[in-house]
Amino acid sequence: MHQDDLKQVRENWYSAFFARDVAHLARVQADNFMVTTERGVQSKKSQIDAISSAKSSGSWFPQGGQKYDTELTIQNSGGSTTVTGQGYTISGQSQGPVVAFSENWDWDGAAWRVVSLSYSAARKLN
Description:
globular
């Protein structure tokens, strides 16, 4: 169900995150959007407020940033889709740690909306 569209919406969503484009984030994220990390849970409003604050103080990815997926699985279930995998970010010349992530996306008949994102340090295989 619109899997190629979802991949493009995802890429645009992550690009908007690194570009501090809170208007784009607000459009793509569901009203009940939540981010869960090892540091806790953040609502859509608190995430957008934090990005806006970091943007105005100049403390947001000073040289931009990009996300790279090293593993990606997309599973559809009705109108809901789960995207899981591993990846890392690059900001300037610095590569971030590899993280495992899970995203839940809903198709409302007209557009994709991300409902949740969770990520944590990826476990290393021995």
